[in-house]
## 1
Amino acid sequence: MFLSGVPVIAAGCLLTGFLAKRPRAGLAVTLLVLSTFLLWKNFVADIVWRMHPALGGYTFTQSLAICWSSHTLGLLQFVLWVAPIILIVASMIFYPLYALMSRNNSSI
Protein backbone atom coordinates (compact mmCIF):
# COMPACT_ATOMS: atom_id res chain seq x y z
CA MET A 1 0.00 0.00 0.00
CA PHE A 2 1.29 3.46 -0.90
CA LEU A 3 0.31 5.11 2.39
CA SER A 4 2.71 3.12 4.51
CA GLY A 5 6.34 2.61 5.11
CA VAL A 6 9.06 4.28 3.11
CA PRO A 7 6.99 6.65 0.89
CA VAL A 8 5.27 8.30 3.86
CA ILE A 9 8.49 8.58 5.84
CA ALA A 10 10.28 10.00 2.78
CA ALA A 11 7.48 12.55 2.29
CA GLY A 12 7.78 13.58 5.93
CA CYS A 13 11.54 14.00 5.62
CA LEU A 14 11.16 16.08 2.44
CA LEU A 15 8.52 18.29 4.04
CA THR A 16 10.73 18.75 7.09
CA GLY A 17 13.69 19.71 4.90
CA PHE A 18 11.63 22.17 2.85
CA LEU A 19 10.15 23.64 6.02
CA ALA A 20 13.57 24.08 7.61
CA LYS A 21 14.88 25.90 4.52
CA ARG A 22 11.86 28.12 3.94
CA PRO A 23 9.28 28.11 6.73
CA ARG A 24 5.74 28.45 5.40
CA ALA A 25 2.44 27.88 7.13
CA GLY A 26 1.15 25.69 4.28
CA LEU A 27 4.06 23.26 4.60
CA ALA A 28 3.68 23.25 8.38
CA VAL A 29 0.01 22.31 8.06
CA THR A 30 0.85 19.60 5.52
CA LEU A 31 3.48 18.17 7.86
CA LEU A 32 1.02 18.35 10.74
CA VAL A 33 -1.59 16.41 8.74
CA LEU A 34 1.00 13.82 7.67
CA SER A 35 2.24 13.46 11.26
CA THR A 36 -1.31 13.03 12.54
CA PHE A 37 -1.91 10.35 9.91
CA LEU A 38 1.29 8.53 10.90
CA LEU A 39 0.44 8.72 14.59
CA TRP A 40 -3.03 7.29 13.89
CA LYS A 41 -1.87 4.61 11.47
CA ASN A 42 1.07 3.31 13.43
CA PHE A 43 -0.02 3.66 17.04
CA VAL A 44 -3.61 4.66 17.79
CA ALA A 45 -5.24 2.43 15.18
CA ASP A 46 -3.65 -0.66 16.73
CA ILE A 47 -5.46 0.09 19.98
CA VAL A 48 -8.76 1.16 18.42
CA TRP A 49 -9.06 -1.78 16.02
CA ARG A 50 -8.76 -4.26 18.88
CA MET A 51 -11.82 -2.63 20.45
CA HIS A 52 -14.01 -3.51 17.44
CA PRO A 53 -16.29 -6.48 18.26
CA ALA A 54 -15.23 -8.43 15.17
CA LEU A 55 -11.56 -7.99 16.00
CA GLY A 56 -11.62 -9.00 19.66
CA GLY A 57 -14.04 -6.61 21.31
CA TYR A 58 -11.60 -5.66 24.04
CA THR A 59 -12.11 -2.68 26.32
CA PHE A 60 -9.81 0.31 25.89
CA THR A 61 -7.62 -0.70 28.83
CA GLN A 62 -7.40 -4.32 27.64
CA SER A 63 -6.53 -3.17 24.14
CA LEU A 64 -3.90 -0.76 25.47
CA ALA A 65 -2.42 -3.50 27.66
CA ILE A 66 -2.19 -5.90 24.70
CA CYS A 67 -0.57 -3.23 22.54
CA TRP A 68 1.87 -2.30 25.31
CA SER A 69 2.81 -5.90 26.07
CA SER A 70 3.31 -6.77 22.41
CA HIS A 71 5.66 -3.81 21.90
CA THR A 72 7.67 -4.16 25.10
CA LEU A 73 8.89 -7.74 24.77
CA GLY A 74 12.46 -6.55 24.45
CA LEU A 75 14.43 -3.34 24.88
CA LEU A 76 15.22 -2.96 21.17
CA GLN A 77 11.61 -3.58 20.16
CA PHE A 78 10.46 -1.00 22.71
CA VAL A 79 12.96 1.61 21.49
CA LEU A 80 11.96 0.97 17.87
CA TRP A 81 8.32 1.49 18.86
CA VAL A 82 8.75 4.56 21.09
CA ALA A 83 11.32 6.50 19.03
CA PRO A 84 8.95 7.13 16.08
CA ILE A 85 6.21 8.22 18.48
CA ILE A 86 8.54 10.80 20.00
CA LEU A 87 9.69 12.03 16.57
CA ILE A 88 6.14 12.29 15.23
CA VAL A 89 4.85 14.17 18.27
CA ALA A 90 7.89 16.47 18.18
CA SER A 91 7.18 17.17 14.49
CA MET A 92 3.58 17.93 15.33
CA ILE A 93 4.62 20.46 17.97
CA PHE A 94 7.94 21.94 16.85
CA TYR A 95 7.65 22.54 13.10
CA PRO A 96 4.29 24.36 13.03
CA LEU A 97 5.53 26.64 15.83
CA TYR A 98 8.82 27.14 13.99
CA ALA A 99 7.03 28.10 10.78
CA LEU A 100 4.71 30.51 12.56
CA MET A 101 7.52 32.12 14.56
CA SER A 102 9.71 32.46 11.46
CA ARG A 103 6.83 33.94 9.52
CA ASN A 104 6.15 36.46 12.30
CA ASN A 105 9.84 37.40 12.53
CA SER A 106 10.19 37.87 8.76
CA SER A 107 7.25 40.28 8.61
CA ILE A 108 8.82 42.63 11.19
## 2
Amino acid sequence: MTDSTISLSIMDFIANHLPTILEIFSGIFISFMLWFAKRYVAPYLKVEKRHRYAEYIAIIADDITDDLVRNYPDKEWAKRLDEAVDKIMVVCGVDDEIARRAASAAFSRKTVKEPA
Protein backbone atom coordinates (compact mmCIF):
# COMPACT_ATOMS: atom_id res chain seq x y z
CA MET A 1 0.00 0.00 0.00
CA THR A 2 1.22 3.43 -0.81
CA ASP A 3 0.81 6.59 1.20
CA SER A 4 -1.94 7.89 -1.07
CA THR A 5 -3.88 4.64 -0.76
CA ILE A 6 -3.64 4.77 3.06
CA SER A 7 -4.79 8.39 3.20
CA LEU A 8 -7.68 7.58 0.81
CA SER A 9 -8.75 4.64 2.93
CA ILE A 10 -8.66 6.80 6.09
CA MET A 11 -10.71 9.50 4.38
CA ASP A 12 -13.12 6.88 3.08
CA PHE A 13 -13.51 5.40 6.59
CA ILE A 14 -14.18 8.84 8.10
CA ALA A 15 -16.67 9.74 5.37
CA ASN A 16 -18.57 6.49 5.78
CA HIS A 17 -18.61 6.49 9.60
CA LEU A 18 -18.85 10.21 10.41
CA PRO A 19 -22.59 10.23 11.21
CA THR A 20 -22.14 7.32 13.63
CA ILE A 21 -19.17 8.99 15.31
CA LEU A 22 -21.09 12.27 15.67
CA GLU A 23 -24.09 10.45 17.15
CA ILE A 24 -21.88 8.81 19.76
CA PHE A 25 -20.20 12.08 20.73
CA SER A 26 -23.50 13.99 20.82
CA GLY A 27 -24.99 11.32 23.07
CA ILE A 28 -22.02 11.57 25.42
CA PHE A 29 -22.23 15.37 25.38
CA ILE A 30 -25.97 15.38 26.14
CA SER A 31 -25.47 12.89 28.96
CA PHE A 32 -22.76 15.10 30.44
CA MET A 33 -24.95 18.20 30.19
CA LEU A 34 -27.86 16.42 31.90
CA TRP A 35 -25.59 15.27 34.71
CA PHE A 36 -24.14 18.79 35.09
CA ALA A 37 -27.59 20.40 35.19
CA LYS A 38 -28.93 17.89 37.71
CA ARG A 39 -25.82 18.13 39.89
CA TYR A 40 -25.18 21.90 39.91
CA VAL A 41 -28.00 23.90 38.33
CA ALA A 42 -31.09 22.27 39.88
CA PRO A 43 -29.98 22.72 43.53
CA TYR A 44 -29.18 26.37 42.85
CA LEU A 45 -32.64 26.95 41.41
CA LYS A 46 -34.31 25.26 44.39
CA VAL A 47 -32.42 27.44 46.86
CA GLU A 48 -33.18 30.57 44.86
CA LYS A 49 -36.88 29.69 44.78
CA ARG A 50 -36.94 29.17 48.56
CA HIS A 51 -35.10 32.44 49.09
CA ARG A 52 -37.63 34.37 46.99
CA TYR A 53 -40.51 32.65 48.79
CA ALA A 54 -39.05 33.63 52.17
CA GLU A 55 -38.73 37.24 50.97
CA TYR A 56 -42.37 37.24 49.86
CA ILE A 57 -43.50 35.89 53.24
CA ALA A 58 -41.46 38.56 55.05
CA ILE A 59 -42.95 41.33 52.90
CA ILE A 60 -46.49 40.04 53.45
CA ALA A 61 -45.85 39.72 57.20
CA ASP A 62 -44.57 43.31 57.28
CA ASP A 63 -47.68 44.54 55.45
CA ILE A 64 -50.04 42.63 57.73
CA THR A 65 -48.33 43.81 60.91
CA ASP A 66 -48.24 47.40 59.59
CA ASP A 67 -51.98 47.13 59.03
CA LEU A 68 -52.50 45.85 62.59
CA VAL A 69 -50.41 48.69 64.02
CA ARG A 70 -52.49 51.24 62.07
CA ASN A 71 -55.77 49.63 63.17
CA TYR A 72 -54.77 49.27 66.82
CA PRO A 73 -52.25 52.03 67.60
CA ASP A 74 -52.90 52.15 71.36
CA LYS A 75 -52.79 48.41 72.01
CA GLU A 76 -49.69 46.29 72.31
CA TRP A 77 -48.62 44.46 69.15
CA ALA A 78 -47.94 41.22 71.00
CA LYS A 79 -51.66 40.91 71.77
CA ARG A 80 -52.36 41.01 68.02
CA LEU A 81 -49.81 38.36 67.12
CA ASP A 82 -52.44 35.63 66.72
CA GLU A 83 -54.43 37.80 64.33
CA ALA A 84 -51.32 38.48 62.27
CA VAL A 85 -50.41 34.80 62.24
CA ASP A 86 -53.87 33.84 61.02
CA LYS A 87 -53.74 36.37 58.19
CA ILE A 88 -50.25 35.26 57.12
CA MET A 89 -51.40 31.63 57.10
CA VAL A 90 -54.35 32.50 54.87
CA VAL A 91 -52.46 34.76 52.47
CA CYS A 92 -49.27 32.69 52.11
CA GLY A 93 -50.67 29.21 52.62
CA VAL A 94 -48.01 28.31 55.18
CA ASP A 95 -48.32 26.43 58.44
CA ASP A 96 -48.62 27.98 61.89
CA GLU A 97 -44.92 27.79 62.81
CA ILE A 98 -43.72 29.65 59.71
CA ALA A 99 -46.45 32.27 60.01
CA ARG A 100 -45.65 32.81 63.71
CA ARG A 101 -41.95 33.25 62.93
CA ALA A 102 -42.70 35.72 60.14
CA ALA A 103 -45.04 37.77 62.31
CA SER A 104 -42.59 37.77 65.23
CA ALA A 105 -39.78 38.90 62.96
CA ALA A 106 -41.95 41.66 61.49
CA PHE A 107 -42.93 42.90 64.95
CA SER A 108 -39.29 42.74 66.06
CA ARG A 109 -38.19 44.86 63.11
CA LYS A 110 -40.76 47.47 64.07
CA THR A 111 -39.71 47.63 67.72
CA VAL A 112 -35.95 47.80 67.15
CA LYS A 113 -34.75 51.39 67.09
CA GLU A 114 -32.19 52.31 64.48
CA PRO A 115 -28.89 53.64 65.86
CA ALA A 116 -28.63 57.42 65.79
## 3
Amino acid sequence: MKMIHLKDGSIEFIDSNQQLQRLVEEHLGEDAGSEVEQLIADANYTERKIYTDLNSYESSLDSWNSAGYEIIADAQRAIEYIENNKRLDRNKLISFFQSIQTNINNEL
Protein backbone atom coordinates (compact mmCIF):
# COMPACT_ATOMS: atom_id res chain seq x y z
CA MET A 1 0.00 0.00 0.00
CA LYS A 2 1.33 3.42 -0.94
CA MET A 3 0.59 6.71 0.70
CA ILE A 4 0.02 9.59 -1.75
CA HIS A 5 0.18 13.23 -0.59
CA LEU A 6 -2.11 15.42 -2.67
CA LYS A 7 -1.58 19.13 -3.37
CA ASP A 8 -4.52 20.07 -1.14
CA GLY A 9 -2.72 18.49 1.83
CA SER A 10 -4.87 15.39 1.97
CA ILE A 11 -3.51 11.88 1.95
CA GLU A 12 -4.76 8.93 -0.09
CA PHE A 13 -3.78 5.32 0.34
CA ILE A 14 -3.43 3.38 -2.89
CA ASP A 15 -3.16 -0.40 -3.04
CA SER A 16 -4.07 -1.07 -6.66
CA ASN A 17 -3.69 0.39 -10.12
CA GLN A 18 -7.44 0.84 -10.30
CA GLN A 19 -7.40 3.02 -7.17
CA LEU A 20 -4.65 5.15 -8.69
CA GLN A 21 -6.71 5.53 -11.85
CA ARG A 22 -9.78 6.50 -9.80
CA LEU A 23 -7.75 9.06 -7.83
CA VAL A 24 -6.37 10.64 -11.01
CA GLU A 25 -9.85 10.67 -12.52
CA GLU A 26 -11.31 12.36 -9.43
CA HIS A 27 -8.67 15.07 -9.28
CA LEU A 28 -7.75 15.57 -12.95
CA GLY A 29 -10.80 14.40 -14.89
CA GLU A 30 -11.89 11.49 -17.04
CA ASP A 31 -9.36 12.16 -19.82
CA ALA A 32 -6.45 11.90 -17.37
CA GLY A 33 -8.04 8.80 -15.84
CA SER A 34 -8.32 7.23 -19.29
CA GLU A 35 -4.66 7.99 -19.97
CA VAL A 36 -3.63 6.34 -16.69
CA GLU A 37 -5.82 3.36 -17.56
CA GLN A 38 -4.03 3.04 -20.92
CA LEU A 39 -0.61 3.36 -19.26
CA ILE A 40 -1.54 0.58 -16.85
CA ALA A 41 -2.76 -1.61 -19.72
CA ASP A 42 0.46 -0.94 -21.67
CA ALA A 43 2.59 -1.75 -18.62
CA ASN A 44 0.67 -4.98 -18.02
CA TYR A 45 1.07 -5.98 -21.68
CA THR A 46 4.80 -5.21 -21.57
CA GLU A 47 5.21 -7.24 -18.38
CA ARG A 48 3.36 -10.23 -19.88
CA LYS A 49 5.42 -9.96 -23.09
CA ILE A 50 8.68 -9.87 -21.14
CA TYR A 51 7.77 -13.06 -19.26
CA THR A 52 6.63 -14.73 -22.49
CA ASP A 53 9.90 -13.76 -24.18
CA LEU A 54 11.92 -14.98 -21.19
CA ASN A 55 10.09 -18.30 -21.15
CA SER A 56 10.67 -18.70 -24.88
CA TYR A 57 14.37 -17.86 -24.48
CA GLU A 58 14.70 -20.31 -21.58
CA SER A 59 13.04 -23.04 -23.63
CA SER A 60 15.40 -22.34 -26.53
CA LEU A 61 18.42 -22.56 -24.21
CA ASP A 62 17.17 -25.87 -22.81
CA SER A 63 16.76 -27.21 -26.33
CA TRP A 64 20.27 -26.10 -27.36
CA ASN A 65 21.70 -27.56 -24.15
CA SER A 66 20.06 -30.92 -24.85
CA ALA A 67 21.29 -30.87 -28.45
CA GLY A 68 24.79 -30.04 -27.25
CA TYR A 69 24.86 -33.10 -25.00
CA GLU A 70 23.57 -35.27 -27.84
CA ILE A 71 26.28 -33.94 -30.15
CA ILE A 72 28.95 -34.60 -27.52
CA ALA A 73 27.64 -38.17 -27.08
CA ASP A 74 27.67 -38.78 -30.85
CA ALA A 75 31.19 -37.39 -31.14
CA GLN A 76 32.34 -39.55 -28.21
CA ARG A 77 30.85 -42.67 -29.84
CA ALA A 78 32.67 -41.82 -33.08
CA ILE A 79 35.97 -41.32 -31.24
CA GLU A 80 35.57 -44.60 -29.35
CA TYR A 81 34.72 -46.40 -32.59
CA ILE A 82 37.85 -45.02 -34.26
CA GLU A 83 40.06 -45.82 -31.24
CA ASN A 84 38.74 -49.37 -30.80
CA ASN A 85 38.66 -50.58 -34.40
CA LYS A 86 41.58 -51.25 -36.71
CA ARG A 87 39.29 -51.35 -39.72
CA LEU A 88 36.76 -48.57 -40.00
CA ASP A 89 33.38 -48.93 -41.58
CA ARG A 90 32.89 -45.81 -43.62
CA ASN A 91 29.09 -46.04 -43.36
CA LYS A 92 29.27 -46.26 -39.56
CA LEU A 93 31.39 -43.08 -39.43
CA ILE A 94 28.99 -41.36 -41.79
CA SER A 95 26.07 -42.29 -39.53
CA PHE A 96 27.84 -40.67 -36.53
CA PHE A 97 28.36 -37.45 -38.46
CA GLN A 98 24.85 -37.51 -39.89
CA SER A 99 23.47 -37.76 -36.37
CA ILE A 100 25.55 -34.74 -35.33
CA GLN A 101 24.40 -32.86 -38.42
CA THR A 102 20.76 -33.72 -37.72
CA ASN A 103 21.02 -32.44 -34.14
CA ILE A 104 22.48 -29.16 -35.33
CA ASN A 105 19.94 -28.77 -38.15
CA ASN A 106 17.06 -29.38 -35.72
CA GLU A 107 18.22 -26.42 -33.65
CA LEU A 108 18.69 -24.02 -36.54
